[in-house]
Write a structure and sequence with these properties.
This protein is mostly beta strands and 387 residues long. The protein has 4 helices and 21 strands. The protein has 3 domains: 35-206, no CATH class; 211-354, Immunoglobulins (Immunoglobulin-like, Sandwich); 361-387. A hairpin with a 2-residue loop joins strand 15 and strand 16.
Length: 387
């Protein structure tokens, strides 16, 4: 079957949630579709000769990509697979086991010769490489699961690291020829083989699971109630699309992306669209490694600032929950005290902060000193006037 190319077959309706599970299920069921799917644009061919007759064979094998991608990013999902397309074309002798009349005496020995059968074998391997871990598996299907060891390493990808996939080996064509010989034309089967060498590799960006929160304001977890803020810096290895802010049980939701499915050559992909929010700012891909703050040397490619305001005096339980593009959720909690300014020194009241005051005795001393200096200045001025 020839492979037909359609850049985009359809675009789905926009969704507020990334359709990870439906795309995973659709693409994982494509094994039969991608099998025997020759790509003529990259196919290779060889010829072989049997009894003076030329036979041409062609084949291709290519890497399609991960079973789930959002934009250009994949993720260490439990059932993540790599998709491939492969296919072949082989021609046959006119004389075969179903049609070998007397005219099929191809070597003029008085006995007929014909093609008994022909097979195609993929003597190839798929190699997955992430960081310093590399694992090879047989190229036994067009849907190849990513090995568990690779998935485990991918869980801490910064978001700017790549998984490299290589497929390499030979596609072997074997013809079984029945060459009848001798006075009784006894059957004698022999093989004729040729192979096509294939080598291809591609790399795909990987998002990781790690997220790290920093309280930006109020840094001491205490502030004036007239300007209540809850400002947080988020370092993450994967883009987020949803933020939930809670203050004392009251919930406020913010969706900063939407999603749609588009189909490329039968394979579904997810495309995201940006939505604006005054509370959430994305600061682009900047590789950050806060080594002095973490036990592990994780790096983070995505930086967000999350800024919220609220009203109320006293102790508040605040939390932020974020969900990334691959539906991983994590929560961050803080308890922050909001105080009012009081003109009185209210000892023992945690919700107020006393204003700056001066004792009456201290004020009297300061007043006396100032008046005495004024009298001296006046006396000096009068003496100068009458002299």
């Amino acid at each position: 079957m020839s492979r037909a190319f359609y850049l985009i077959l359809f675009v789905s309706l926009v969704s507020a949630t990334p359709p990870i599970l439906s795309v995973q299920e659709h693409n994982s069921d494509l094994a039969n579709y991608l099998e025997n799917n020759i790509d003529e644009s990259i196919s290779k061919s060889v010829s072989l000769t049997v009894f003076g007759q030329g036979i041409t064979v062609r084949a291709s094998a290519d890497i399609v990509g991960p079973s789930v991608m959002v934009d250009n990013l994949t993720y260490p999902l439990d059932e993540l697979s790599m998709l491939f397309s492969r296919g072949y074309y082989l021609s046959h002798l006119a004389c075969n086991k179903d049609n070998h009349p007397a005219e099929c005496d191809l070597d003029d020995d008085g006995c007929v010769e014909f093609e008994e059968n022909a097979t195609v074998d993929y003597d190839m391997e798929v190699t997955f490489t992430f960081r310093n871990t590399s694992i090879s598996v047989p190229f036994s299907s067009t849907v190849v699961p990513v090995p568990e060891e690779i998935l485990e390493e991918m869980k801490t990808s910064s978001g700017a690291e790549n998984i490299t996939v290589a497929v390499e080996g030979n596609i072997v064509f074997t013809y079984f020829i029945n060459d009848e010989e001798g006075p009784l034309c006894s059957e004698e089967v022999y093989k004729v083989s040729r192979s096509i060498s294939i080598a291809s590799n591609r790399s795909f960006a990987v998002g990781g699971q790690q997220k790290l929160f920093f309280l930006q304001a109020p840094i001491l977890r205490e502030q004036l109630a007239s300007n209540n803020h809850f400002d947080v810096i988020l370092l993450t290895q994967c883009p987020i699309y949803f933020v939930e802010f809670r203050v004392d049980g009251s919930t406020h939701n913010f969706t900063i992306k939407n999603f749609s499915i588009f189909e490329e050559d039968g394979v579904e992909r997810i495309r995201s669209g940006e939505l604006s929010s005054s509370n959430i700012a994305f600061h682009g891909q900047n590789i950050t490694t806060p080594t002095s703050l973490e036990k592990e040397d994780y790096s983070f490619a995505y930086v967000y600032t999350l800024n919220f305001t609220y009203i109320g005096v006293g102790e508040h339980n605040l939390s932020i929950r974020v969900i990334d593009e691959f539906l991983e959720s994590v929560e961050y909690n803080e308890t922050i005290l909001s105080r009012e300014i009081s003109l009185k020194n209210t000892d023992g009241n945690e919700t107020t902060r006393p204003n700056t005051t001066y004792p009456i005795a201290e004020l009297n001393i300061i007043g006396l000193g100032t008046g005495f200096i004024a009298i001296i200045i006046l006396v000096i001025s009068l003496r100068s006037w009458f002299s």
